[in-house]
Each structure stands twice: as C-alpha cells, then as structure tokens.
Amino acid sequence: MAAITAADVNKLRTMTGAGMMDCKKALVEADGDFEAARDILRKQGQKIADKRSDNATSEGLVLANVSADGTNGKLIALACETEPVSKVADFKALAQQILDAAVQSNAGTKEDLLASAQADGRSLQDHITDLMGKIGEKLDVVAYENMTAEKVASYIHSDNKKGVLVGLKNVGGADVTAVGRDVAMQIVAMRPVAVDKDGVDSGTVEREIEIGKEQARAEGKPEAMLEKIAQGKLNKFYKENTLLNQEFVKDNSVTIAQLLDKTSKGMTVSDFKRVAIGA
C-alpha cells in the first residue's frame, strides 16, 4: 500500500478541484496512482449525476454574450438545485466556461455545445459532471440560444436567473444600444409569446377563441354574437401577449412597434429568445 502524503492530496486537489477528503480517499483507493485517482473522482461525479438525475434545478445563473459587431448573441442557463451552490466560485466559473465554449464553438444546439472539446481534450459535459462530483448537486445546462441578426441586444435580469436575446432589423445607422436593452427588458418583464400575431401558433389562437366564446356564453350573450366577441378578445390577447403590440412598460403611451419606429424608421424585431431558471 502506497503512503499517501499531504502533498499528494494537495497535488490531486490542485489537478481536479475536488475536496481534500475526496482526494485522499481516491488516492488510497488508487494506491497512489494519480491518473487512476482522477478517474475515481470522475466516476464519483457520474454517480451523483445518475443518482440526482430526477432532482429539480430551480436555481442557477443565466449569462449572455454579444459579439463585438453586434450581429450574434449567445445565451446560456446553468441550473443547480440550491441557491448557495449558485453563488459558489466554481459554479460561476463553470457557467462562464460554458458561455466561452459557446462563443468559441458557435454551437448550433445544446447537444453540440455539451459535446464541444475543452482545453484538456475532454467534453464540456465531462467538466460539468466533474463539478457535480465536487459539489454534490445536479447541474444542468437548461437552455442555450444562439442568435444571429442585423443587430442583437441582450439583457440579464438582476436576479441572474432570467435573460433575453432580441434581434433587430432595418436598423439603418441608428445607435440601438439603449432601445435594444429596453426591448429586452420588456421581454423579461412581460413574457410575450411571439413577436407579433403572425407568430402565435394556431393551437393558441384556437384555444383563445374557444375561451372567448365560453366566457361570452357564460355571460348570456346570443350565440350569433359569440364569434365576433371571441375575435375581439383575441385581439386583446394579441395586444397583451405579442411583443410589438404590447405597451412599452416605461411609457405606456407607445407600443414597442412605435418605440422602435421612432428610434429608426422601419426598425422592428426579427426574433427574440427568453430563458429563465425556475420560472
């Protein structure tokens, strides 16, 4: 049996970031073989991942990056089980590593992002699993968005659990920094379901019409009037739930469409992505 020294434990801890007791146990089990000990620690992370796979992840961090030319944005959400873990330096560093990997790889999907090779040749998912072993909680990339547009703006809410990318088009020569942020904040706060009514899926439209008819029927309105009343309620739904038709939260005398057009004639939103942890 190899003698395990404090220096050996510290060396493995430096290599892996795992706790001192975990490192000592791994070295004892591996009879002093550092590579075998690293594998033991990795397997420990996988065991925790498997054991806690069904646990809820309602805390975490959302981070965003917009390219220097403003035409591409990345948005990631790394979730964990408890708030204290979301404040740990290693967790924050992992979230930043995930965002950096997204920027470097320009991954098209979350699966591609998690499979991307890191500096040590291992996948990003391997690094996430390693930290699970160290922290003892389920960690999960619950959202990844990659957006390209004429101009992309981003916003992360003060709780660091909600974020938005919004794509703008027909910008012209306008500086859209402020208005882009305002629109992104609007999306976080008001949670629109689509850019405009053409983006609302048919199932939602049908459901809102049926709800409108049932409400009118319950109020005793004549059957012949139900369709017209339901259409009126649908238009109200569009106004309240589609971004361009919503009243601007900072100035309800204008809609988002009007706000953008005032900033630069013809400017509008091409797309948006909203992600949230625990909501």
UniProtKB/TrEMBL annotation:
Which residues are in the Translation elongation factor EFTs/EF1B dimerisation domain? 74-278
**Molecular function terms in GO for this entry?**
translation elongation factor activity
Keyword Transferase included in the entry's annotation? no
- The organism's superkingdom is given as Bacteria
Q: Which NCBIfam families match?
A: tsf (TIGR00116)
The similarity comment for this entry is: Belongs to the EF-Ts family.
* Alphabetically ordered keywords of this record: Cytoplasm, Elongation factor, Protein biosynthesis
Which HAMAP family is this protein grouped with?
Answer: EF_Ts
Give the protein name, as stated in the record: Elongation factor Ts
Q: Which gene encodes it?
A: tsf
What does this gene product do? Answer: Associates with the EF-Tu.GDP complex and induces the exchange of GDP to GTP. It remains bound to the aminoacyl-tRNA.EF-Tu.GTP complex up to the GTP hydrolysis stage on the ribosome.
The record's annotation in CDD domains points to:
UBA_EF-Ts
- Location within or outside the cell: Cytoplasm
